[in-house]
Amino acid sequence: MTSDSTQSDATPTESAADETERLRGVVDSIGFVLFDFDGPICRLFAGRPAADVARDLVQWLKEQGLRGLLTADEKREADPYVVLRAVDRRHPRSDLVAELEAWLTRQELKAVTTAMPTAFVDPLIRTWAAVGARLAVTTNNAPCAVGRYLERRGTLDCFAPHIYGRTQDLSLLKPNPDCVERALRAMGAEPGATLMIGDAPSDCVAARRAGVRFLGYARNERKAQLLRDAGAEHLVGSLERLSRVVYANGDIKAP
Fold it and tell me: pLDDT digit string (tens) for 149-204?
């Protein structure tokens, strides 16, 4: 399997029945579900790759005479959030960081119009909400962009008001568990009854630090390996079977 190929739900040595049973174990007794945004819910930068946004951010720094703030690796970074964090580490809470964060928020809001929903996530969200689970978004994205996207998809009511995203304190971005812990406090959720779904190592680390269960969503083998390296025990390459399992376990209710 190449790094660009889409995984099936089951691993190569796991049957569909085994995968279904494993997922039942993952969602058993879950009353609260935390979704990362960009990945599990949608591909935010589907219309414009995130790498292009990162390059534009680096170019903006260069035009301001500040490109020297970044290391050679950071200048080549394909993730704009890594670039933003790098600048924040050197100039925390500065006007420069605030301006860069505002610029990135504008890019996210523009991207909402071309974002592609992750396959099967909308029925999964609606089913989980319908059977009584309480849902939240825990993300490094701007909350306003998340809210606008969910409103366009007609799923905002499944989450609102529980959207916990980027704040002005960029040191609290995942893998810091801050957004996860804010969600737990606001919903009165027990960590042991909470599942987080994420697609990045930082999601896995944040979930572990907050004491909540974690299910990794990996649309290709490269992402799957990164999640495994971060310690993720349970992975899916599609949300289809998870949606079926949640529907079949329709008597699950939030504590």
Answer: 999 999 999 999 999 999 989 999 999 999 999 999 999 999 999 999 999 999 99
